[in-house]
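Narrative of accomplishments. A recurring question from our advisory board has been how the design workflow behaves on a single, concrete structure rather than in aggregate. To address it, we present the structure tokens for one chain from the evaluation set, followed by the sequence designed for it. No filtering or post-editing was applied between the two.
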């Protein structure tokens, strides 16, 4: 019993540390995007990931980093991830730091909806209610109505939707087997590198050593948070990690106010509370055991729904 309690405390502590690393990466991204264009940042971060990934492959981990039996699906997933990364950069440029959290937090809810056509999962009434509450929380971002919508909101919405597609495809790849999480991360960063390089000649701006160092630090934070998530998911179940990770909103509020001089309005607090509550509601609803059903021999059992399985959460 003591070992279980100690493991839970360790897992919770590592999750809190991981949220700080993740928010730090976001803060660096917001600082950099104010001066440089996203493609340039994506190229440098992608190069860092390539060096580390190919270095691991050269050290004898090539199969873990490079092998996949589903190259087309991995490429599709990586393409959507690249678009999401690009859009999130511009969301950080045009929106207050804490407001971007809502677009991140809504992704597991949208993933539950996309899981029906992509993964063949059943959606209960609770899932639809959670989604309605979550989108209701998003409306608090623009209390003045459509007139308050701007480029940042459009970028955030594109980032959330394409990121969700990438997340669901990651789940499908994970279910098929044969593709390590490291390979999904490697090819996602390769897609960012290629996508950024295509338009880099039209958006390049000179960078001093300090700026390059910040991009490298950003890339290392991304890799660290994904690696740490894999470790955490060996200690705690995914639903517990999701619940603890909601503290990320508080970090973003603190950093937004302390570093970027932003004030988080009451409507954003309310919206975040609704989105977080909807996500926790979804996790609880989908953890409840389904009612027993009589399955005929000729019928195939349908997969049970899951808000975000371990592999997908680690990759995300």
């Amino acid at each position: 019993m003591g070992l279980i309690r100690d493991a839970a405390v360790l897992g919770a502590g590592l999750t809190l540390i991981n949220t700080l690393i993740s928010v730090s990466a976001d803060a660096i991204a917001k600082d950099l995007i104010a001066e440089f264009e996203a493609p340039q940042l994506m190229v440098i971060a992608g190069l860092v990931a390539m060096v580390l990934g190919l270095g691991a492959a050269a050290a004898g981990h090539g199969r873990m980093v490079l092998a996949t039996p589903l190259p087309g699906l991995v490429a599709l997933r990586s393409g959507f991830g690249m678009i999401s990364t690009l859009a999130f950069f511009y969301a950080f440029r045009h929106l207050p730091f804490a407001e971007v959290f809502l677009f991140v937090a809504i992704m597991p809810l949208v993933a539950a909806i996309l899981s029906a056509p992509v993964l063949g999962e059943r959606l209960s009434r609770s899932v639809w209610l959670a989604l309605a509450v979550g989108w209701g929380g998003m409306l608090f971002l623009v209390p003045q109505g459509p007139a308050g919508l701007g480029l940042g909101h459009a970028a955030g919405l594109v980032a959330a939707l394409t990121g969700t597609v990438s997340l669901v495809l990651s789940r499908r790849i994970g279910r098929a087997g044969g593709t390590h999480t490291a390979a999904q991360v490697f090819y996602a960063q390769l897609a960012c590198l290629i996508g950024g390089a295509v338009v880099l000649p039209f958006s390049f701006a000179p960078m001093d050593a300090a700026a390059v160092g910040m991009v490298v630090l950003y890339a290392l934070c991304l890799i660290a948070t994904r690696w740490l998530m894999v470790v955490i998911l060996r200690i705690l179940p995914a639903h517990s990690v999701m619940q603890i990770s909601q503290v990320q909103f508080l970090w973003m509020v603190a950093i937004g106010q302390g570093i970027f001089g932003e004030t988080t309005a009451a409507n954003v607090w309310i919206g975040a509370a609704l989105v977080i509550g909807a996500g926790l509601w979804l996790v609880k609803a989908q953890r409840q055991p389904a009612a027993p059903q009589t399955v005929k021999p000729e019928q195939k059992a349908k997969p049970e729904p899951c808000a975000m399985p371990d592999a997908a959460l680690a990759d995300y």
